[in-house]
């Protein structure tokens, strides 16, 4: 089954509906015949489905986030979106060398993926990267590119990301991987626009890639595990600081130990000296 998403014209990346089609059911110009979810059945409209997927159920609902998905399900969506972004980058690079027009839809769909990624992470850097990329995604005279399988896959991944919502701290590495694939995707679009001799759009895509790399560096530093402090060695600054804490003129601990041992030895000798010795026998007369 094929799935096509409908996005808001006012809020890029916001999904407002969807349509489905069968691969073998084609109409004019061999294009699939699409049917909206609400036309198939009232309960299949997107608002109805979202209400059904909302949390509030017992049992496993306590382990689910605001999106109604478990952590494992959100991680699977992040990995799927990263794979789709990588596949779109390969497709765009292939088209840039052979037929740049075929890459228009994938480059256009990358904007949705960037905006949704910025929304689920809450990152201001990603939001500025998505805003910078918008210029690189636009076609001349506001034309809408012809849909392609790569563009549809990327839009579906963006829709899944939007449904997953914000991820927890356990998804940090997967979010970093998604941002890395999106950065590679924007670089591929910059190469495409450069091949098309669209210098302004190529510069916009490179700006987005730079901001994505900045966010990747921040994510990696935030997810790096803390290392325990090394143990103090003899002669180390920690030992020196402990020795420095002894007041001036006070005996060192080693000296105190030696003095105590000497005092015990003197006391022992005194006790032996004061004890009465064996009496000497008087000589016989």
Record the SSE blueprint.
Blueprint: E1 2-7, E2 15-21, E3 35-36, H1 37-40, H2 46-53, H3 71-98, H4 104-121, H5 124-137, H6 149-164, H7 172-195, H8 199-223, H9 237-244, H10 253-274
Antiparallel strand pairs: 1-2, 2-3
Helix pairs in contact: 3-4, 3-6, 3-7, 4-5, 4-6, 4-7, 5-8, 7-8
Characterize the main sheet: 3 strands, antiparallel
Cα Rg: 36 Å
Total strands: 3
N to C succession of SSEs: EEEHHHHHHHHHH
Q: Span from first to last CA?
A: 135 Å
User: In percent terms, what proportion of residues is strand?
Assistant: 5-15%
Strand arrangement across the biggest beta sheet: 1-2-3
User: Which structural class matches the secondary elements?
Assistant: mainly alpha
Give the overall shape, derived from the CA principal axes. Answer: globular
How many separate helices?
Answer: 10
Helix content: 55-70%
Question: What count of structural domains?
Answer: 2
Question: How would you characterize this protein structure?
Answer:
- By secondary structure, the chain is mostly helical.
- The protein has ten helices and three strands.
- The protein has helices at 37-40, 46-53, 71-98, 104-121, 124-137, 149-164, 172-195, 199-223, 237-244, 253-274; strands at residues 2-7, 15-21, 35-36.
- Helix 5 (124-137) runs antiparallel to helix 8 and helix 7 (172-195) packs antiparallel against helix 8.
- It is globular.
- The termini are far apart.
Features:
285 residues, 3-stranded antiparallel sheet, globular
Brief overview, please?
The protein is mostly helical and 285 residues long.
């Amino acid at each position: 089954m094929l799935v096509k998403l409908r996005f808001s014209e006012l809020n890029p990346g916001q999904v407002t509906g969807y349509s489905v089609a069968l691969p073998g059911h084609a109409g004019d110009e061999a294009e699939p015949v699409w049917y909206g979810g609400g036309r198939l059945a009232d309960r299949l409209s997107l608002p109805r489905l979202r209400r059904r997927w909302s949390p509030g159920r017992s049992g496993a609902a306590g382990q689910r986030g605001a999106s109604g998905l478990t952590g494992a399900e959100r991680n699977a969506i992040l990995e799927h979106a990263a794979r789709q972004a990588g596949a779109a980058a390969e497709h765009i690079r292939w088209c840039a060398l052979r037929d740049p027009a075929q890459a228009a839809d994938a480059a256009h769909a990358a904007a949705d993926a960037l905006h949704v990624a910025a929304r689920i992470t809450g990152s201001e850097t990603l939001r500025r990267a998505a805003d910078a990329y918008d210029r690189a995604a636009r076609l001349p005279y506001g034309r809408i590119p012809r849909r392609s399988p790569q563009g549809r896959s990327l839009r579906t991944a963006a829709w899944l990301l939007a449904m997953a919502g914000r991820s927890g701290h356990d998804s940090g590495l997967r979010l970093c991987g998604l941002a890395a694939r999106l950065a590679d995707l924007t670089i591929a679009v910059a190469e495409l626009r450069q091949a098309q001799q669209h210098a302004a759009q190529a510069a916009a895509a490179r700006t987005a890639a730079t901001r994505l790399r900045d966010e990747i560096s921040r994510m990696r530093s935030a997810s790096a595990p803390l290392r325990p402090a090394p143990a103090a060695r003899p002669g180390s600054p920690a030992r020196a600081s402990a020795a420095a804490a002894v007041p001036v003129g006070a005996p060192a601990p080693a000296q105190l130990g030696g003095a105590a041992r000497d005092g015990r030895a003197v006391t022992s000798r005194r006790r032996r000296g004061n004890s009465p010795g064996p009496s000497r026998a008087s000589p016989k007369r």
